[in-house]
């Protein structure tokens, strides 16, 4: 409804209607297929020639819809917009009926609650401005969406936090001498201790924590992003021990195994550079480069 020249692409995933969770109506179809048909119907009601496609992605929800052209001339835009408003209101009526069945609400005896707000009769202010707004309270997404998963943080900042947290875990464990720092000796390699996320946060600078709090997931997300160094399980942070990682599956097709092997050594090994005992794996077994000469 933003403009007549608008085109759209949508990849339906979670089962939601305009006013809440989508309620099934046809038991002869799977829930996914029924919801896909509903999303396609929305496109048709909005006056699009709706095309269906299946994406080549590793997901069970792969069916997408594309609307590239309209089914009506631009002169009939106002008429179609009225049809869209009626369709939205009809879905609201369905949502109320479902809520009544589930919660046993009686509109004559209950004056509050979600169901009354989503009543079949649109409010007066909505009726007056239905042609100029999308829905009451609707806020379109901004043109620029800020990335807040710690991926856009400065590399120097991330490296410093990773090093500080790793040293904190390593120093929490009793120090052990290592006769062969690059040999991966099982008995002497310092695995460090595990600490809770709260304990780790208590040892970090306040300015660092303030910067992380502006990101989704904060400290936990940053540590999980650095999969090579850390393992975060049940709210506790561990130094990752690559000796315990499962080797690549031998059941993979030969082509995939070969591609996987060729992808090795594209990044330097953090443990080889920073860990006091070096890497726990020998160079030929480590998926990361022990020195720039091994980078591919």
TrEMBL record:
Localization, UniProt: Cytoplasm
Entry annotated with the keyword Cell membrane: no
Keywords: Cytoplasm, Metal-binding, Methyltransferase, S-adenosyl-L-methionine, Transferase, tRNA processing, Zinc, Zinc-finger
Gene Ontology cellular-component annotations: cytoplasm
Catalytic reaction equation(s): uridine(44) in tRNA(Ser) + S-adenosyl-L-methionine = 2'-O-methyluridine(44) in tRNA(Ser) + S-adenosyl-L-homocysteine + H(+)
GO biological process: tRNA methylation
Keyword Cell cycle: no
GO MF entry, a single one: tRNA(Ser) (uridine(44)-2'-O-)-methyltransferase activity
Residues in C3H1-type domain copies: 263-293
Zinc fingers, C3H1-type class: 263-293
Gene3D superfamilies assigned: Zinc finger, CCCH-type (4.10.1000.10)
InterPro entries: tRNA_uracil_MeTrfase (IPR011671), Znf_CCCH (IPR000571)
EC number: 2.1.1.211
General function of this protein: Adenosyl-L-methionine (AdoMet)-dependent tRNA (uracil-O(2)-)-methyltransferase.
Assigned protein family: Belongs to the TRM44 family.
Stated name of the protein: tRNA (uracil-O(2)-)-methyltransferase
Natural source organism: Melospiza melodia (Song sparrow)
């Amino acid at each position: 409804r933003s403009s007549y020249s608008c085109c759209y692409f949508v990849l339906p995933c979670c089962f939601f209607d305009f006013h809440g969770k989508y309620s099934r109506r046809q038991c002869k179809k799977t829930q996914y297929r029924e919801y896909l048909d509903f999303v396609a119907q929305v496109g048709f009601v909005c006056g699009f020639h709706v095309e269906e496609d299946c994406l080549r992605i590793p997901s069970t929800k792969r069916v997408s819809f594309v609307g590239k052209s309209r089914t009506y001339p631009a002169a009939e835009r106002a008429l179609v917009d009225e049809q869209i408003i009626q369709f939205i209101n009809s879905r609201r009526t369905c949502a109320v009926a479902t809520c009544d069945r589930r919660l046993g609400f009686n509109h004559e005896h209950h004056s509050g609650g979600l169901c009354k707000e989503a009543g079949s009769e649109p409010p007066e202010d909505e009726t007056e401005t239905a042609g100029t707004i999308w829905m009451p309270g609707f806020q379109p997404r901004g043109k620029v969406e800020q990335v807040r998963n710690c991926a856009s943080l400065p590399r120097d900042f991330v490296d410093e936090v990773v090093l500080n947290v790793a040293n904190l875990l390593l120093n929490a464990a009793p120090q052990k001498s290592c006769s062969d720092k690059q040999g991966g000796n099982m008995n002497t390699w310092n695995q460090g201790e595990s600490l809770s996320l709260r304990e780790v946060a208590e040892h970090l600078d306040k300015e660092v924590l303030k910067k992380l709090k502006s990101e989704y997931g904060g400290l936990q997300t940053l540590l999980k992003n650095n999969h090579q160094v850390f393992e975060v399980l049940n709210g506790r942070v561990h130094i990752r021990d690559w000796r315990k990682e499962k080797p690549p599956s031998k059941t993979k097709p030969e082509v995939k195994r070969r591609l996987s092997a060729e992808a090795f050594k594209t990044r330097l090994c953090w443990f080889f550079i920073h860990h006091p005992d070096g890497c726990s794996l020998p160079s030929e077994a480590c998926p990361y480069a022990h020195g720039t000469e091994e980078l591919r």
